[in-house]
Design brief:
By secondary structure, the chain is of the alpha+beta class. The chain contains 3 helices and 3 strands.
Length: 93
């Protein structure tokens, strides 16, 4: 069964974050850090700070939209400020 991932990346050089979804998390992070994405190439390198896994694409897209909303952006700030051990379902290696 396919899995879909919603991920939050944090720029290591600027106060920027990026929210996206993908079927292949490791490949997508490599693409962001190699400059293949228009927005993220300006602020690389990126660190994966949070991820959630979903069984269907529709739910993953809905969650991605939530994180891009004003309420979701506030949640991202909470995630960024949480100690590493407390980050929910954090980073996939």
């Amino acid at each position: 069964m396919k899995k879909y991932y919603v991920n939050i990346l944090k720029s290591l050089i600027a106060e920027k974050s990026y929210v996206g979804f993908t079927e292949n998390l490791k490949r997508r992070i490599k693409e962001h850090n190699s400059g293949k994405s228009h927005f993220t190439k300006k602020y690389k390198p990126w660190e994966l700070v949070y991820t959630e896994e979903f069984d269907d694409k529709t739910t993953a897209i809905r969650r991605e939209k939530y994180f891009r909303s004003s309420v979701g952006r506030r949640k991202i700030k909470v995630i960024f400020n949480a100690p590493v051990a407390q980050k929910d379902r954090a980073a996939v290696s």
